[in-house]
Amino acid sequence: MITKQNFGRIALFVIYAWFGILKIVGQSPATPMITALMAKTVPSFISPHLFFILLGSFEALIGLMFMFPKIQKYTNILFVLHMLMVWTPLILTPTMVWSAWFVPTLEGQYIIKNLALIAIVLNLKREQSAIVAVQQQA
């Protein structure tokens, strides 16, 4: 049976695995933005190709981890780390993400939509906490 929690987990899996795989195979539409961000943040000893494989693998791993409620705590840690990375272009590469004050480019919209992912994860965390509380009372 697909509950709202299961649907949230499946949605997160699809988004993270899909976007991660696109980075691994070199087909991500976020490549120019990530490359510009790399120039400002990542040491030059790592090649962009390797970085995209690592980043894509990291995203795909997070997606897979969302499918397992028992490791939600660890998944949330990786999710927060990923969100910190994802939001940095808003500050470090503003010309790529803002066309005017509070007018995001397509890349900016791509980043801002992560608010929906944060909402799903917060809901999963709340539901998981409620389940644990009920189990502890039993």
From TrEMBL:
Keywords: Membrane, Transmembrane, Transmembrane helix. The keyword Transmembrane helix applies. It comes from the Bacteria. The chain crosses the membrane at residues 7-26, 46-66, 78-102. This is Doxx family protein. It comes from Candidatus Yanofskybacteria bacterium RIFCSPLOWO2_01_FULL_49_25.
